[in-house]
Structure prediction request, 162 residues.
Amino acid sequence: MGIRMRFFSAVLAVTLLAGSVRAQSAEPKTAGQTYKNIIQLKGTPAGQLVSSMQFIASSLGVECAFCHLQGKPELDDKAPKKTAREMMAMQSAINENSFAGNRQVTCYSCHHGSSHPANMLPVLTSDAPAQSEARPPLAASVAPAAADILENMPVLWAEPAP
Ligand code: HEC
Ligand code: HEC
Prediction:
């Protein structure tokens, strides 16, 4: 192989390499380039937008229609869609600030299949009414019982009665 030939094949290799790099980086379109009204998910690969939506819907335990008018997902008519954008921004701020940019916190972390996440430990909220119903009124049962004991067994009472 002559020096000239070697030079040409090197140029060819570099050209092919550059071409394939360019082809690769241009290939996956983003959601921002493909869909009509994308603000938060601009950088998401277009092919992942619908699966992100499915993830959101099941995280909140809702249907697409909770946020979208049927057949017009680009419209912003529904309040939950706007809230969802705020939630997306909050979620990326949490992940940026507290998890080195890793997607540790997602819609599911808080929502767990409900559109309104519980902000109280379920055991506390469910126990509270049950306890107050179950506990007998003090004056009716507990207090007389204690009084009975004191009356019937005064010797056990160390301090003198007032
Ligand atoms: C909790 C609200 C919510 C639910 C549920 C939801 N979406 Fe979305 N969807 C959004 C938001 C917010 C955007 C805009 C995202 C942005 O601004 O980057 C969006 C955007 C879209 C878009 C892009 C529309 C366009 O052209 O701009 C499509 C398509 C879409 N959603 C489909 C779906 C499908 C299909 C489902 C059900 C599997 C679904 N969505 C469930 C909130 C939701
Ligand atoms: C750090 C916890 C947290 C995360 C993460 C989170 N949410 Fe929320 N979200 C909440 C809380 C709390 C509420 C309820 C606020 C209220 O009751 O007023 C809520 C309410 C909502 C609502 C309003 C529901 C309604 O009935 O109008 C939507 C829509 C929503 N979130 C979407 C999302 C989406 C989409 C994501 C993921 C991108 C997300 N949330 C991530 C905590 C979170």
Notes: The helical segments are 3-26, 31-34, 49-60, 79-98, 107-111, 122-134, 138-152. The pocket of heme C (ligand 2) is lined by residues 56, 60, 80, 83-84, 87-88, 91, 105, 107, 109-111, 115-117 (CB under 6 Å). Residues 122-156 form one domain.
